[in-house]
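Structure tokens please, single chain.
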Amino acid sequence: MRIFNLICFLLITQFSIGQAILDYATIDMKVAEIPPNQAKTTSGIAKFITSNFKTDNEKIRAIFYWTASNISYDVPNMNQPNNLDSAKEKIASALKTQKGVCIHYAEIFNEIANKVGIKSFIIFGYTKQFEVIAPISHAWNAAKIDGKWFLFDATWGAGFVEGKKFTKKLNNSFFMPEPSKMILSHMPFDYLWQFLNLPITNEEFINGKGDTTKPQEKFDFVIAIDKYEKLTDEAKAFEAAARIEKNGILNTLIQDSYNLKKREFTVVTQNKSIEKLIEITARFNVAISDLNDFILFRNKQFKPTQSDEIVKSMLQNVTDKMIKCNNDVYNVGSVSPENTENLNSLKRSILQGIEKTKEQENFLNDYLKKDSLGRKMMFTISR
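Here you go.
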């Protein structure tokens, strides 16, 4: 099975595609004053930023500047798989070593932004420069500032690689570039994150030519993202996979991303199924416990004495629980292969529980039809 390596292709030379840069010198100078001990965690960095800057525009600049200025591109490990580490592990490693590849920059940017109250996402995609498609994938960020979405690439903003050497040099072209400029070099796997009302296809990006024959359907990405955020994780993965497929699977990077989203959908679905399985198992155990309590009550010849209605309701409660468990267990959905036997075992156990409950129902029905002497005789005979 192919491993989806989330690594990035760093800018080889400086490449200016950004919007006009505002004067952020004051913000940058202040960010440079952050105490070293406070810069050891994203919480510390976020606290410094919220303490020194008021507007989201100032805060996002501070986040970009800190990330691009303090993390050096880890050239020796640029081709190493890093998708096995969790986000927190990536962040901790990059903060400790002050080195990383694109996903480390993106994770740090994303976490600080969220901690200062700015909505941020990590965008996954691939890149192109000098008309050449990079052979490895890339990660950058999107953030919502004052109700509007903006793009950021702290990795390409940090400097450039020449040969096997990283040169740190802040490049403001990748701080809030216009989407129409960013798309010249950065192609999201999911066109939702192009921030374009007329998203381009993978074929157009790769060939560098627009397709005049395709329908010019306006895409409202703002509304689409709002809807996307309200979806379940399962639905998010499903819809992202559909958009990736629709935009054309033309290389292995796109194929890997598509497969990853399909696996995410499968995993989320299976995890929900396992949650259902666990919940049904817990309810079945309660039903079995109630059934055992009833059998114990019967063995004591239904003493202390209760009314027939109460005795009937005790067993009916068990029956209802068993039936619900049986109905629900067949609506669990797909589970992973290692949990298939657990699911089948639960189905068998529930059927056995229903059978045992039925035996008690048959006895109770006969019992309730008899007078007091007949009821006593049933216990004598059953012995």
